[in-house]
Amino acid sequence: MKLLSILLFVATYMLLLLLPKYRTYISLTSAVLFIVTGIVPVNKVLSYIDWNIILMIAGTMGIVNLFIESKMPALMADIIIDRVSSIKWVIISLAAFAGIVSAFIDNVATVLIIAPVALDVAKKLNISPVYMIIAISISSNLQGAATLVGDTTSLLLGGYAKMDFMDFFFFKGRLGLFWIVEIGAAVSLIVLYIFFKNYDIPVHLEEKQRVEDYFPTYLLVSMVILLIFASFIPNKPSITNGLICISLLVIGLIKEILIDKNNHALNNTLLQIDYETILLLMGLFVVVAGLSETGVIDDISSLFLRFGKGNLFLIYTILVWFSVLISAFVDNIPYTATMLPVVAKIAKGMNISPYILFFGLLIGATLGGNITPIGASANITALGILRKEGYDVKAREFMKLSLPFTLSAVLTGYILNWLIWR
Q: Is the pLDDT of residue 264 over 70?
């Protein structure tokens, strides 16, 4: 079973990289094979799917569609264009803005919110939105680890290590993960500046877009506030964040139908939800669960104890960069969930505080997902948006920007975390 799960996993991810147009079908087919072969028990399939993320994506997609129809993204695009001098600074500004937003809400939600702004900018300036969307995606994925509510991996760490929202800023008298990630983000913006240095075409705005309805904007702001508030609730249901997003979407639809008398709002909004991306992620959850079921991830994790030989710096280094490598191809959520207890055991065995290893894990796992198109849910979502616009992005094209961006941010976080928490 173990060998079969490895072969299926490798075949799945090779096909995902080689045949991006058929990613959803590949993911679902692979999930079915993992179930049919008995690697993943039928009675456990639903429990392995992270319904909190699925509900968050669906709810946010619907809210973002209302947000787009309100013309607020167009106004935001106009404001950015009006305040910068060239396309280069438009792209860098959008990426930085996406990072700031992603520090407080899920990175997938951030991409869904900011990507329409980038698309509007690209259309107004008559340029390709591909690298602009990629920059937004990898920037949001990077800063998702900055706060408790920024990413699912942060929520996993917070729950396991009993950390609350403010612990990500200052923890046990030291600088928290927020500052480590933010400094890494600042360094990565230099990479964006170099990458887009020749995008010096001046921009000019003649007239700003008028917003037709501010209610969807209020929904988005409410979502941020409620997600932050929910982080302080002890022992809350695992799908709390997803229910928040879905509930706000329902409120938005009720307002559109009953108050605005928009009879087409329900169909229009629900049809705009990217069901292919949702199904792709559901399939990947099952695939990675297969590796957990056969003990493959546990076997790989145990290698840390063999190669580390009691040397904290060596174990820390292996953990960070191994996490980068794995998360480039494997969804970081199940990987992080699996590795947290392993890291705790390593720290206990060495009689040290586990936080340097916890934070190293998060730096490697969260930022490492930026390297490939399938390494993070935000990247998958971003490419789904581009695909709907008629742009099929190949892995090599994606990694032209993502690889230097990711390595600069990880290296910065790797050094800072060691200096602060060793």
A: no
